[in-house]
Amino acid sequence: MAIYEALLKHYGPQGWWPVAGSYHPGDYGVPKNEEEAFEIIVGAVLTQNTAWTSVERALENLRRIEALNPCKILALSWDVLKSAIRPAGFFNQKAIYLREVALLFAGLKGRTPSRKELMSVKGVGNETADSILLYAYKRPEFVIDAYTKRIATALGLAARGAGYMELKDLFESNLPRDVALYQEYHALLVEHAKRFYSGKARESSGAFVDFLRDLSY
DNA sequence: AGCCAGGCTACCG
DNA sequence: CGGTAGCATGGC
């Protein structure tokens, strides 16, 4: 919580997840309907190992052909679907993944899927499942991504070889079970990591020092 | 030019 | 099982 407070004070509310092309700082009511929830799910798949700026283009392409809903995704030809998501990379795999999640979503009829259910979908692993549950369904599942792992290991909170569930457990067992907190915390970790733990700066001692300085504010 | 990006699956030993 | 090649485009 001390780390969270320091990050929040320093960076302010981040407003993940971006929906309809923009962020929504401080608004934890997003998504406000099924369409927005599905857009988050599509974004969660498209952003796998991919910069969000590239995902935005793919989402915009899908929006333009009115394909940001499960039925349309399932109805599109492979060629059209692939060319729409092309900017987000890995389009052959991701086209398959999108159809898989569209099929699941359509079958839910508004029900919230279990974590196990999501994980059984091809293309949905730990992080994607948690992102979907936390941001699309407002469930208290802490999301661990590469940035979060870098920060946690750099701070000595976790071993270098720590697995996904281990890290998830670390955060969840030390925080109140609160959706808004989980959403904001993850967003703040990403923002901080982008500044100090990405590219050549990753795991540098300078990043660690900068973090401590932020903490002391 | 070459490394990196908000991972996952399949396959290797 | 733990570890990793392959997947593809765009930004810097």
Give the gist of this structure:
The protein contains twelve helices and no strands. By secondary structure, the chain is mainly α.
What does this molecule look like?
The chain is 60% helix and 0% strand. The chain is an all-alpha fold. It has two domains: 1-21 and 141-217; 30-137, Hypothetical protein, domain 2 (Endonuclease III, domain 1, Orthogonal Bundle), CATH 1.10.340.30. It is globular and about 50 Å long. The structure holds a DNA duplex (13 and 12 nucleotides).
Radius of gyration: 18 Å
Structural class, from secondary structure content?
mainly alpha
CATH class of the largest domain: Mainly Alpha
CATH superfamily grouping of the largest domain: Hypothetical protein, domain 2
Instruction: Work out the helix count.
Output: 12
Q: CATH topology of the largest domain, which one?
A: Endonuclease III, domain 1
CATH architecture of the largest domain: Orthogonal Bundle
Order of secondary-structure elements: HHHHHHHHHHHH
Low-confidence stretches: none
Q: How is the biggest beta sheet arranged?
A: none
